[in-house]
Task: structure prediction
Amino acid sequence: MRVCVGVRTQQLIHRVSIHPVRPSAAVRWRAAQTRLFCSPPTEEEKPRPSMLRHLTSKIKATGPITVAEYMREVLTNPVTGYYVRNNMLGPEGDFITSPEISQIFGELIGVWIISEWMGAGQPKQLKLVELGPGKGSLASDILRVFSQLRPVLGKASVSLHLVEVSPTLSRLQAQILTGNCSQEADAEDEPVYRRGETAAGLPVSWYRRLADVPTGFSIFYAHEFFDALPIHKFQRTEKGWREVMVDIDPEKPDQLRFVVAPSPTPASSVLIQADERRSHVEVCAEGGVIIHQIAQRIAGDGGAALIADYGHNGTKMDTFRGFKDHQLHDVLSSPGSADLTADVDFNYLRRIAGRDVACVGPISQRTFLKNMGIDSRMQVLLRNCSDASTRKQLISSYNMLTNPTEMGDRFHFFSLLQHSRLARPKTVQGLNMDKKSPAPLPVAGFTELSFS
Result:
């Protein structure tokens, strides 16, 4: 007997056993744009000033650089990059994300993944691929759900694949996910630069590029990943579209400034759509490449992708900003000392994904989590919790995740699926004209749960 996805998803949620609430950090939350920041880094953690010298030397040698190149250098330079050298997550870092706020977030993502695996016919192999795993909290919560729902997975072979450029964060992820059961590759150019195994025996592998992750049926997920990828900025002028560049201020040689390229650049010639109506546009070409890779893998090998980030549907213009010490920060000031981010253009991701896959969303985080049954999960947790401080923390975390004025309407969920997941049932031809093939299960999270 075929069960409605709403009932089945609810059953999965209720089968996740009660887990101790993650200890609350002594954090004073501040909602700024969609980021939550904590105490500033200590003097020992502050970046060295070499990033500015590196950039000014580069500009003097080759001329103004694109905003994309600026972001790439500032965030991921292998020597002085912000993400490479810092542990920016958590109470001792610069910001906190949803998985750190409440384990319920990761639990529901885990249920979503299992729901999509079931909707795809329960393949024998399941690769979980996370882009930008942060501290590893989200993966840890997902794997806990997988452990508790192991009977549902049956004999399926599950493996975890993490795409991470930061050596600092990869070591932290390995400690959280595998304890001491991981080791680094001997050669730096190895596609898999770290391997490990969870306490339950699930293999975990680390990669610097998505292209190095083995093919096969995969569920891709990315939380606050695409917002940090380099963007190109373009300005409409009387002479047509021109790219915004980063240059040295001639009056202040130790400072950077934005300038508009006097003539078309390769990026301004190919990345702007002919029907674009905005006067200022940000395009994340690197994000487009990754989405294209994911779409091709889903179309060829099966699977799905779930992207959670803050963004828009092709409507916003200037969203490039920096964050430091709880506050908005000038993106060109003290490069390497602050996080740089830009809202995700989901309309662009949808266009790049192409016709080989089906795109669902974006919908607000509030809607997605409620569709996934966060209210039911909260009721279970509160019913089994007698400690007043823990109950208060649960309610506060729930409010942070779902309140429209907090993160509820600022973050959005977007999914890539095989077309077969949404295909209408076909009527069987012949003598049994009244019979139809089974209808595909609605996509959990993007469809309101139903008990009918």
Remarks:
- The radius of gyration is 23 Å.
